Amino acid sequence: MKRGCIFLIYLLAATFVCAETQEAQDTLRTVALEEVVATGTRTATDVRLLPVTVSVVDQEVLTEKSSPNILPTLTEQVPGLFVTQRGVIGYGVSTGGSGGIKVRGIGGQPNTDVLVLIDGLPQYAGLYGHPIADNYQTQMAERVEVIRGPGSLYYGSNALGGVINIVTRRPKNDTIITSLHAQGGSHYSVDAGITNQLRRGKWTEAVGFNYVRTSGHRENMGFDQYSGFARLGYDFNTHWSLNATGNIAYFNTANPGTVSEPIFGSHQHVLRGMATLSAENRYERTEGAIRVYYSGGKHRINDGYKAGEEAPQTEYNHTDLMLGVSAYQTVRMFRGNSTTFGFDYQHFGGHVWNKGLTDAVPATKEVIRKTQYDLAGYVDFRQQVIEWFSLDAGVRLGWHSAAGFYYAPQAGLSFLLPQDAQLKAVVSRGFRNPTIRELYMYAPANDSLQAVNLWNYELAYKQYFLGGRIRVGANLFYLHAKNMIETRMVDGRPKNVNTGELKNAGCEVEFSARVWKGLMVGANYSYLYMVNPVLAAPEHKLNLSVGYHHDRFRIGTNLQYVHGLWTKLPVTTAGGGTVSTGSGNPVTTTAHYKQNFVLWDAHAAGRIWRELWVTLTADNLLGSEYEINAGFPMPKTTVMAGLQFSF
Q1: Dihedral of the CA atoms 43, 45, 47, 52 (nearest 10)?
Q2: For residue 624, how far is the Cα from the chain centroid?
Q3: Which residue in 98, 164, 380, 412 has its CB near the most CB atoms, within 10 A?
Q4: What is the pLDDT of residues 602-627, one digit of tens each?
Q5: How far apart are CA 497 and CA 490, in angstroms?
């Protein structure tokens, strides 16, 4: 930790000196200090006035590396956030799947503790309570805003550890532009798509379609996906507008199993979609919206078989849904005030059945058909007391049909200090209600489970230098979770139980600088102290990036160091003292399951005619050997090359 901090401090100092020594007439574009976000609040707000910590990854950064999914970019750009992977493209679902998201060590397996939103509305499978990682395409995102810490005040259950909000594309000025891209490379990987954006007077439109595929770097690890999105809007006048948003994704993949225990005959076919309709209002002293939304999916999965086993005689099938209404109104009652009142209703659940594949089993065997509802209201009071001091206090009160009454308070202070500096302090509570799977499905089911809850205490500092060309930030946090849901052996059988506590603490550091015209450098570092080890949550994560943009070319490189990443947790047997891998077989060491690795990536693009660009991306240039999911070695060096054209 000390070596990492010393290295980062040296980097900050060196870059600052470089920037300070430039001539006064340098024509660098000044970056505005006021960064406006819509996450952590329901309306667009200066991020300096929010007590919570919000990281913003804009469209330029998301698209620069040509990744079809937003999650790899977030792992690099957001300190304290880590996403599990298993291959070149695609995360998969069910056994052998990845895409688990951890924020400050909170996330769950599968991920039920970090909430993913699209335009502020929740996206997760109604039965299992977790997001589907392959559903979050880069092409639909204008930017991504990440709350590092609980977001339950505004977003309720599943925002226990953090929130990822994908803000979809919406042209702001009169325009019509169509963009095409196509690239291919290692392991017969292909990524191709088209988007169109239009704004004419009162009408706005953004639509797109994308196709990706790969054969994978291991046998039986192919992936292909078709996805599309659309956002339509109409401004009735300066005060009222109507917006409709939708996306759909269909993918096929498989679980190859671990290297030591391969799986044969596995296949996963998943269809996911969402749609929203929102009426928004904006006046001088008040603004708000009412939104109706639907999301759902259909999954068909065969988990396959290992060597020496018989092929499965049934196939897993499920459909799920989430229907909801979200309404809020922000009122500026007096000078410096912003008070938000909100109401949320969700109805979610699904149907699971096993389909027989042979005459020896029933054609259909019911597993569960179940729905639940959640009803909540919240209020958030924010007041700028004086020019340099703001306070925030809010609470969410709700009722879950299985878990009963719950509450989620939050309080924070924000100080605007001299020399473009900020200091924030926040105390917040996050929670997660037990999912239908945990309560009622399969052998470990326990319908007496209570909600998981977490208290987060955080202190944050940020400062801008040279008119915003240099930004430095640091966070200290401590979080304490109770009633964590785990599967344990009780009376000789597995059972989901509320057990134990989780205590994590750490620090996060961010830095960015526009050193010269078109030249940007950035760094972020996070240290996570865990009283007990947490799966897929690195103890240290350091990311360094350099990029240069010219009107005819752009180049960039990224170096990521991960240390102390558990891919499989050590456990103590009931007899005490014996360490095992979780399989019940005693071992003398678990070092193999604690990973340290360095990844070096690079990308470049050149304009060869008008808006026709040729692109090149190379990942893991060092050919590092590492795993994120135990038993699933990641690919070595991979290369993608292609074309981009806009007109």
Answers
A1: -40
A2: 25
A3: 164
A4: 999 999 999 999 999 999 999 999 99
A5: 9
Query: If you search the block for the tokens 């599967």, which residue do you land on?
Result: 487
Specify the residue for token string 């690195």: 538
Burial 566-575 (b: 16+ CB within 10 A, else e): bbbbbeeeee
Q: Give the separation between CA 396 and CA 529, rounded to whole angstroms.
A: 29
Given a contact cutoff of 8 angstroms between Cβ atoms, the answer to whether 186 and 95 are in contact is no
In Å, how far are 118, 192, 268, 536, 641 from 89, measured between CA atoms? 22, 13, 15, 19, 15
Q: Give per-residue pLDDT as tens, 487-533.
A: 888 988 999 999 878 999 999 999 999 988 899 999 999 999 999 88
List 566's β-bridge partners, or say none.
535, 594
**Alpha-carbon dihedral 332, 334, 338, 342, rounded to 10 degrees:** -60
520: Cβ contacts below 8 Å, ≥ 6 apart = 512, 513, 514, 545, 546, 547, 548, 549
CA of residue 259 relative to chain centroid, distance? 28
> What is d(CA 62, CA 143) in angstroms, rounded to the nearest whole number?
8
The structure tokens listed for 286 are 């008040």
CB-based burial label for 198 (10 Å; 0-12, 13-18, 19+)? middle
Using alpha carbons, select from 455, 454, 449, 456 the residue that is nearest to residue 485.
Answer: 449
Distance CA 282, CA 291 (A): 15
Between the alpha carbon of residue 53 and those of residues 20, 456, 490, 555, 639, the distances in Å are: 28, 12, 40, 30, 35
